[in-house]
Write a sequence for this structure.
């Protein structure tokens, strides 16, 4: 699949296998970074959603209390 051709990089010969292996490693590292950022973002959104749910529960309880007071 891979030929034995080499490429000159900064004065040294680098095989196509090394280039492809390094590229795959860099792509994997980028994927890990993107996944980490998504997890952090999801956690922050979850915290905000929990705060909104608590506020919503308090407002619902207050609305029920007011409606009972009116009747």
């Amino acid at each position: 699949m891979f030929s034995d051709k080499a490429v000159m990089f900064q004065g040294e010969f680098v095989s196509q296998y090394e280039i492809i292996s390094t590229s795959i490693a860099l792509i994997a590292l980028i994927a890990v970074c993107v996944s980490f950022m998504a997890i952090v973002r999801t956690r922050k959104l979850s915290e905000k959603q929990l705060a909104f749910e608590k506020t919503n529960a308090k407002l619902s309880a207050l609305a029920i209390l007011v409606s009972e007071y009116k009747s």
About this structure: The beta strands are 6-9, 12-15.
